[in-house]
Amino acid sequence: MRRSLLLIEDDALMREFITDYFVQEGWVVHEAENGKIALLIYESVSVDLLILDIMMPEVDGFSVCRRIRQKSDVPIIIITARSDDEDQILGFELGADEYVTKPLSPRVLVARANALIKRKEGTMGRDGDVLIYGKLHINRSAHTVTKAGMNINLSPKEYDLLLFLTKNCGKVLSREYILDAVWGYDYLGDLRTVDTHIKKLRAKLDDVGDYIGTVIRSGYKFEVES
């Protein structure tokens, strides 16, 4: 089954450039030139991924991201010419999974898209194991997280972060180490990206969010109290 994406970009040449490359890689691409059109398309078609620019007419990318996240955990990649840390942090706070700055490499963009989809579908590291930490259960085959039997809806990046923390249960992990391991060595974002995702993850985990402890001047540690 071919994967599909909704590309939201007001620059026609950039849109054509990205679309051509994804089509060559076997993707079905739906295009929107602004946020207003994008939201209408999203309601009428089913897509596996969103790629959206920030600066757009009608409805900007941040607003699109916010509205989509209110009802869906579809993977979202933000692309923009703006590399301000605050913009990146806001994007992650609104639920984006990746943040790619222009000029961009289409090969890297496709690779990031494929990685996000694989994590979403649970096709990476599939071994049938269910990790159990107190009331928290992580099924790596089904790519699901539950607490006391209730499903917890995580974005692909939040899932990756939780899985990394649990694999290193009891260890103090620096922000730098977490950023490199979860986002990759080539990621140019700020360390506050880690703090933002930890905050969101704790909120979604609710009372078991306390499993993720802050170690002053060191980083974070996942630990389940007896």
Describe this structure in words.
Helix 4 (85-93) packs parallel to helix 8 (192-205), helix 5 (106-121) crosses helix 6 and helix 6 (156-167) packs across helix 8 (192-205). This protein starts with a strand and ends with a strand. The chain has helices at residues 12-24, 35-44, 61-69, 85-93, 106-121, 156-167, 175-183, 192-205; strands spanning 4-8, 28-32, 49-53, 76-80, 98-101, 130-133, 136-139, 144-147, 150-151, 172-173, 212-215, 219-222. 30% of the residues are buried. With 226 residues, the protein is α/β, with parallel strands linked by helices. The radius of gyration is 18 Å and the shape is globular. It folds into 2 domains: 4-121, Response regulator (Rossmann fold); 154-222, Orthogonal Bundle (Arc Repressor Mutant, subunit A), CATH 1.10.10. 41% of the residues lie in helices and 21% in strands. The strands form 3 sheets. The chain has a 5-stranded parallel sheet with strand order 2-1-3-4-5, with helices on both faces. Strands 6-7-8-9 form a 4-stranded antiparallel sheet, covered by helices on one side. It is built from 8 helices and 12 strands. The longest helix has 16 residues, at 106-121. The modification 4-aspartylphosphate is found at residue 53. One of its GO terms (biological process) is regulation of DNA-templated transcription. This is Two component transcriptional regulator winged helix family protein. Residues 4-117 form the Response regulatory domain.
Write the layout of secondary structure elements.
Layout lengths: L3 E5 L3 H13 L3 E5 L2 H10 L4 E5 L7 H9 L6 E5 L4 H9 L4 E4 L4 H16 L8 E4 L2 E4 L4 E4 L2 E2 L4 H12 L4 E2 L1 H9 L8 H14 L6 E4 L3 E4 L4
Parallel strand pairs: 1-2, 1-3, 3-4, 4-5
Antiparallel strand pairs: 6-7, 7-8, 8-9, 10-12, 11-12
